[in-house]
Fold each of these.
Amino acid sequence: MSTLTDERTTELIEQFQQHFGGAPTYVSRGAGRVNLIGEHTDYNDGFVLPVALKRDVRFVLRPRADRQVRLFSVEFGESGAFDLDNLRYIPEQLWINYIQGMAQSLEQEGIRLTGIDAVFSGNVPRASGLSSSAALEIASAHAFLAAAGQTGVLSGPRIAQLAQRAENHFVGVNCGIMDQFISELGRENHALLIDCRSLEYTLVPMPEDAALVIGNTRASRSLASSAYNERRAECEQGVALLQPVLPGIRALRDVTSAQLEAHRALLPENVYLRCRHVVSENERVLQTVAALQAGDLVRVGQLMNASHDSLRDDYLVSSPALDAMVGAMRSVEGCYGARLTGAGFGGCAVALVKPGYEQAMADAIFEHYPKATNIWPEVYMTKAADGAGVEQLLLA
Ligand code: ADP
Ligand code: MG
């Protein structure tokens, strides 16, 4: 287990002293994440394979004797406050709603919370598809649980579900369970296979010679939410049209490639192509797990490439910026494979590379991507990290 006592925590402790006086007693973290493979499969009851990032959202906090919550957001340079007995959505301060939503979810679970003073900050890029929102929810969950003396009372999967509920119901974002699950349950040097139907999960060791490079396109994701709803509807239409001939199916998760091909004539072309992506992507996730277990990174890279091509050609959620990013990544020696990650249209791409080639890949991205797009990207080099954490701070 890695420790949370590092430079970032030291800085947060100093900020806490400035804002609240005295010292915080706990530090908590929720991790950002990147999905290796399994895109647009979660809402089809399928499989995903994310890893947690070293990048996180972190709280330092001190419990209060009352039910007031006082917060300072370092990135926004803003204070915020709420009363645990009077939670209400605050439209002018989006970030505080994730924290209020988490408090509400925990109390609905029967955990009596106490107020806190807290300073928090994150280095997960916001709104870029690396799930800063789940990191914020999970970090705040552990802050509240520690303050209430309830650390360890809830299981990791339960905390993830409560965080998803906070985002769905309090914030009003219709996200799946992947982000919260990996933010909570990620493990250093492991990917996490999640079955989005049963919520069963398996840690899959990442081979030693696997490094990850993430390229942030910094391109607008404005199309993403309308397209997301359209794609979900097309998937549902596919299931409805296939059910008469495949009576056992509940979701595209239950359909094989062979079945889809056999009944292709029943589906309009757009619906067929969307289904083909989802069905083949689920198969690719399971094939990726097998390839990781066999240490066959060449195969993993091929599956990642096939995933991107399917998202681009069948699911229509790539973009010129994402294709340019993936093209720059694939041009580098040492790249096993690269694909868009997240819902698409903007956000990030992820590449699997041989260790030692990360810098060459970053150089290639900075050389080729801005020429193609006129946008200056960001590049993060990473490995699979631990998910959530919470520690008591020892007073100096
Ligand atoms: P992402 O893909 O990063 O999850 P979202 O739009 O789902 O994008 O969530 C981003 C929102 O989460 C931000 O608008 C902000 O309200 C909140 N957030 C994330 N990180 C932080 C942070 N470090 N400080 C304050 N708010 C944050
Ligand atoms: Mg999010």
Amino acid sequence: MIKVGVFGAHGRMGSEVVAAVQGADDTELVAGIDAADERDAVRGADVVVDFTHPDAVMDNLRWLIEQGIHAVVGTTGFDDAKLAELRGLLDAHPGAKVLIAPNFGVAAVLMMHFAKLAAPYFESTEIIELHHPNKADAPSGTASRTAELVAAARRDAGTPAMPDATTAEVPGARGADIDGVRVHALRITGLIAHQEIVFGTHGETLTIRHDSMNRASFMPGVLLGVREVAGLPDPLTIGLEPLLGLG
Ligand code: NAP
């Protein structure tokens, strides 16, 4: 049995994780905590799953790494500075492994993989991400990651810069520029988590769309992370791709 703790246990995602851990045959819940609770409650866990808040997750990870507890992280908002700090912490305290996945949905990971494959074949690529209005960060971690993957695939293939004649712009109208890829974030009541990647070249377009209908859709990916994190080759792994054999 893998002993699992959950940070953010009463949150929208954390409560699904608690149910998934309790429902699986090979995992056992040690404790689930929220902002006001003591982290000591998860001592004894092999793995802690964190779905908290971008402002809280680094402090949680510092503590877990110091305790030698593996972490499976869904919380978004990681930038280069935070990742560099994490690598430093993991070097200073060998033992714990950290898996950060901007998206635990297997279909979402496949969407990113397919986007990477398609990117070099199109002149233009833009991303539209659509989420519920309670989301704290914009654009989503998945959209940022997709933009980076598309940009890298275009660079590797020597694809020229995207055409864009915009010279007059209401600020924000063309979305955020992530590595040269425009990303547009919609916050709409009634939605959960959705994304479209629109590719275009002369006379044809291709749209790849992913829809997450409920938060339970993320749980097979979370449980995969819980099962695999201890055996990952590197102290820090970003994305579910290596666990799905996608490289
Ligand atoms: P949420 O409903 O607001 O839940 C967050 C929970 O974290 C709350 O229960 C909150 O407790 C708790 N919390 C805050 N600070 C904490 C701390 N220091 N220690 C322990 N618990 C703490 O948010 P959500 O919708 O579940 O989303 C959580 C995160 O997951 C966000 O960053 C979101 O973008 C991300 N997310 C990722 C994926 C993915 O596949 N990677 C999918 C969906 C969402 P209190 O209520 O007591 O403050």
